[in-house]
Amino acid sequence: MSKDASIAEPKVSDTKEGGSQVDDAVEQSLYAKRQKIYPREVHGLFAALRTAGVAILLGLYYIVPWLQWDGRQAVLFDLPERKFYVLNMVFWPQDFFYLTLLLIVSALGLFFVTALAGRVWCGYACPQTVWTEAFLWIERKVEGSRPRQMKLDKEPNSFRKIRIKATKHFLWIVFALFTGLTFVGYFSPMRELAANFVTFNNGPWEMFWIYFYALATYGNAGWLREQVCMYMCPYARFQSAMFDKDTMIISFDESRGLPKGPRKKTADKTAAGLGDCIDCTICVQVCPTGIDIRDGLQYQCIGCAACIDACDDVMDKMGYERGLIRYTTENTLQGKHTHIFRPRVILYAMILMGVTAGAFYSILTRTPVAMDVIRDRNSLYRETNDGLIENVYIIKLMNMDKQAHTYSLSVQGIPELLLKKDIDDISVKSGEVIELPVRVQVDADNLKQRSNEISFTLDALDDELHIVEDARFLGPAFK
Ligand code: SF4
Ligand code: SF4
């Protein structure tokens, strides 16, 4: 839709005389051009926390793929090999369960933190916030402070303006490419990837994802910024379901701040009938989403606390008490008691602790060998020359341990079961997958039914590894 797209249908209404008349056309534009937001730089406690958060999170993101562990990359999701290395652990596609657990723990963690402290995730740790902060920092370094940026944008094109803008975009693109390269470095060995990137020798898929992720970073953090939070992020929309009157939110204290109005520092605000808000609008100027927190809690507020720092600074200059804008709860603002430990918080915390403890226990006690038993589907069963009933299986073994193992295999479930295999020693190297055809035989007299439950047991001869896998043994129908 073009920016001038509008509804401009003539409105026809009945007249008392039974006729009709065409009213003036009612134009209602459905498009509002985005007003560029120039967030003013802010200093203070929460700005320092946000900067520390950005430094730690971005530092981890860019450094982790370069770390080595036991002669290999410490964190590597090797998709072609289908192995996921995390420090000294190796996960396989069979361990998908742990990824599910990780997602559940992350979601529960987000619910818990949101119920307790509102949108701290958005304000301090969300990748969109973190990279936008980094891009804003580059922008300020190149274009200068907020007033300078606004002035530059209003200027007609000139060599100076083009040079400044080109420098900013060049730095953004370099940073975005480095981000894309690092992202792919979690899936493809980082050192080779970086060396090949410099010489343009990466494979097509690696190049595609490096450029794709770089483009996404450049677009989201450089251009879209607050629009991602306001229009694209679903979390902003459903967070209200996790809020209650005891949730920590960033609020303007109306009882203290209103009526707002400018005044001299030396003025007697009580005599002038004014509250503490001097209507300087600095809290609006620092807001990365461009909202006015004095209008109340809005879904566009990402909880970055920039307005708290800004307003505290103003309060200090005016000689007023800090905290006109602060972290508080709706109950506190209404003079009521705030309950930190309330049912939903306790419930989220208990589920979170339970699932996290279960996940850790499961990972620590995980058996680094997997066995799949696949029945030969070509025949239900066959009768051997000795008159025994025979079923054929393929035993698929995966040694997920860091060392080779030799295993013994046995089968149970029906009296006098015989296990026939072509090799005596089942030796599997670290990271190896083998397929072992085996035949299981039994006297028909020992079968009580057509389909019988049996189980294969695998024991490592050089370790305590032990796993059991169930299967079915089929025989002739009984009359
Ligand atoms: S920064 Fe504080 S004093 Fe200034 S307009 Fe905002 S709330 Fe009022
Ligand atoms: S209103 Fe305050 S906390 Fe919310 S996004 Fe704006 S500056 Fe950040």
The average pLDDT value, as a whole number, equals: 90
Helical content stands at 25-40%
Question: What separation lies between the terminal Cα atoms?
Answer: 75 Å
Work out the strand percent.
15-25%
Instruction: Please give the number of β-strands.
Output: 20
Biggest sheet character = 5 strands, antiparallel
In angstroms, what is the radius of gyration? Answer: 33 Å
What would you call the shape? elongated
Tell me the number of helical segments per DSSP (H or I, 4 or more residues long): 15
Structure notes:
It is a single chain. The protein is of the alpha+beta class and about 475 residues long. It has three domains: about 1-35, no CATH class; about 35-365, no CATH class; about 370-475, Sandwich (Immunoglobulin-like). Helices cover about 40% and strands about 20% of the residues. The chain contains 15 helices and 20 strands. The protein has helices at about 45-65, 95-115, 120-125, 125-145, 145-155, 160-185, 190-200, 205-225, 225-230, 235-240, 255, 280-285, 305-320, 330-335, 345-365; strands spanning about 5, 10-15, 20, 30, 70, 70-75, 75-80, 85, 90, 250, 325-330, 370-375, 380-385, 390-400, 405-410, 420, 425-430, 435-445, 450-460, 465-475. Strands 12, 13, 14, 16 and 18 form a five-stranded antiparallel β-sheet that branches. Strand 2 (about 10-15) and strand 3 form a beta hairpin. Helix 2 (about 95-115) runs antiparallel to helix 15 (about 345-365) and helix 4 packs antiparallel against helix 6 (about 160-185). The longest helix is centred in the middle third of the chain and has 26 residues, at about 160-185. It is elongated. One iron/sulfur cluster binds next to helix 13. One iron/sulfur cluster binds near residues 277, 294, 310, 324 and 325.
